[in-house]
Amino acid sequence: MLLALVLAALAGATMALQGALNSALGKVLGWLETTLVVHVVGTAAAAVALFLWAEGTWGPWRQAPWYTYLGGILGVPIIYGVVRSIPAVGVAAATTAILLAQIFCASLIDHLGLFGLQRISFSWYRLVGSLLMAGGAWLLLKR
Hints:
By secondary structure, the protein is mainly alpha-helical. The protein has one domain. Helix content is 77%, strand content 0%. 10% of the residues are buried.
């Protein structure tokens, strides 16, 4: 469990760095061009990783529900939101808004057990944790 949390924290740090890099590229290329470049470079990196460290098989790809393939499409509005928000409010403020939205959306997904994931009911602890995080975000964003 500790390894999973460390990996999640590393992913979060990487997302903040990626947002700053995407925003900088967006200033030069534009948001749609940046989205394309990010996805092409990411696809190349994933292809290299696949050939070096392949874990699974392509055999059961037809067994996955259609909606599980939408992650790539969701990257377009994600990158657009990052490219447009970071120059306007800064990396910390944009990342704070992103994290809060992720927490609330993730809590809903957990509570409903969407996409075949384990159902984890929304509890008072989770509500208080979310509110504390929102309060922390408000303090972070206060000028």
